[in-house]
């Protein structure tokens, strides 16, 4: 007769089929399932201490800060970029071959040996933002750039002055980088857009 089946196994993609037919001569059904794997990131600073609020872009998909374990990965190459406040972004790749992987990522701190008066004079709010983001600076802003996590420019504002309201109504939810250019200085901040 005709049957419907659902096959599931731990750490494998589930299979469903309709109108599966078994006749009097059939004695067995062979089901091939695809196994998936897990990648776990251990993110450390230059002293070996865990960095707890980094966010990871894995295979061009951004994930919430602090999510360091990813299920549902297939055999093959995977690309990542790790972002954390006060650290340089770290990019790389890894390969999964029939087993889970663990990666140790060492983040290099941004050099703070010189006082950064520009950064302390910059204010962004609200963050996370829904419809608009306000930027205020103690120094005149020459340009504001909004970039997605692949580095693609989403928007550019020229010579906005000391403050500006950025409309986010046409911007999709996710994590972005906001670059604020002032005289001889660029400050980059992480911005989250929520819907």
Q: Your description of this structure?
A:
Helices cover 2% and strands 54% of the residues. The chain is mostly beta strands. Strands 10, 11, 12, 13 and 14 form a 5-stranded antiparallel sheet that branches. The chain has a 4-stranded antiparallel sheet with strand order 5-4-7-8, with no helix packed on it. Strands 6-3-9 form a 3-stranded mixed sheet, with no helix packed on it. β10 (122-125) and β11 (132-147) form a beta hairpin. The radius of gyration is 23 Å and the shape is elongated. Mean pLDDT is 82; it is low at 112-119.
From the structure above, extract its key features:
5-stranded antiparallel sheet; 4-stranded antiparallel sheet; 195 residues; 2% helix
Extended strand count: 14
Write down the overall mean pLDDT: 82
**Approximate strand percentage:** over 45%
The structure class reads mainly beta
The DSSP helix count reads: 1
Share of helix among residues? under 10%
Global geometry: elongated
- The N- and C-terminal alpha carbons lie at a distance of 49 Å
Major sheet summary line = 5 strands, antiparallel
Please compute the radius of gyration using only Cα atoms: 23 Å
Low-confidence stretches: 112-119
Helix-strand sequence = EEEEEEEEEHEEEEE
Structural topology:
Elements: E1 2-7, E2 15-21, E3 37-44, E4 55-58, E5 61-62, E6 69-73, E7 76-83, E8 90-96, E9 101-106, H1 117-120, E10 122-125, E11 132-147, E12 153-167, E13 174-182, E14 185-193
Parallel strand pairs: 3-9
Antiparallel strand pairs: 1-2, 3-6, 4-5, 4-7, 7-8, 10-11, 11-12, 11-13, 13-14
